[in-house]
Amino acid sequence: MKSRPPETTAPTDGAARMHAAPVICYPIDTLPQADLEGYRAAREGWTKISETVVPPRDARSFTVPAGHFFRIVSIDGPQVGDLNLWNADDMQERFFSGKTRALHGTHLSTGDRLWSCLPYLRPMATITQDTLDWYGFDEWGGAVHDVIGTRCDPYTNRLLQGSEYHFCCHSNLTRAFADATASELREAEAYVHDVLNVFMCTGFTRDTGQYFMKTTPVRPGDFLEFFAEINLMGALSACPGGDCGSKHSSDVAACHPLLVEIYRPDTVPAGWQSPARNAYPGSHGR
């Protein structure tokens, strides 16, 4: 743990080394920016075509055609959700939380995009509205909708608690994928991946750098809205942590359902085209 006293004496130039200025790893100035005005204009006259209620401590799948919108909505009480996304036409292409974090930062909001894994690396969805964007970063460095946590899972729970709990988000998402694809659980589990923690308020402690969670600011009526850039299958777990103000991986916290709404616009945004997969040819120097 970094909270332990250092065992190594700082070199004479240690302070100078520590004061080196940071450099952004992936400047995104050359990335095409989301045309939020165009997306929002396309919502005019849209039609809700389906909705899915995600029960507490469980998960459900849904599909969103390219050029459609979907919303994750808080309905009965403060509740966080773990989101997985796949290319509905090729399940090997899935959400890449690590690269999304590297491009857009630890927490996502309006205008940020959810990128797919290598070798595809293209936008899967764009966030078009976030009713919690007012939260920003709080005094502890906490913020909402993170791509730093993984997902609560029964393996870590067994490691740390010595007990079995079957309704962690990893297990919930595994069951949802298996049901949606008529696959066995072991096969389905391989497709479950790191998540967008929707509505979850998280950060890193200043002293030890540990991942923390705190009570979400979400309330019924709040939502996170996306535009599907490609044909998507999604799965959303209503986390057993509820509002994540106490603990997860148990039945202790009060939990609530979440709602997924799918909307079809009358016309797609002006000039929009579904993005092609990444243009790198895969030669890797040979």
Main sheet specs: 7 strands, antiparallel
Counted up, domains total: 1
Helix content: 10-25%
Q: Which class of secondary structure composition applies to the elements? A: alpha+beta
Rounded to the nearest angstrom, the radius of gyration is 20 Å
Low-confidence stretches: none
Q: What's the quaternary structure here?
A: single chain
On the 0 to 100 scale, the average pLDDT is: 96
Annotate the secondary structure layout.
Elements: H1 14-18, H2 36-42, E1 47-54, E2 59-64, E3 69-74, E4 81-87, E5 90-94, H3 97-104, E6 113-115, E7 123-130, E8 143-146, H4 154-161, H5 169-181, H6 185-189, E9 196-204, E10 211-214, E11 223-228, E12 232-238, E13 258-264
Task: Please tell me about this protein's structure.
By secondary structure, this protein is of the alpha+beta class. It has one domain (47-264). It is built from six helices and 13 strands. The strands form two sheets. Strands 2, 4, 5, 8, 9, 10 and 12 form a seven-stranded antiparallel β-sheet that branches. A hairpin with a 2-residue loop joins strand 4 and strand 5 (90-94). The N and C termini lie far apart (42 Å).
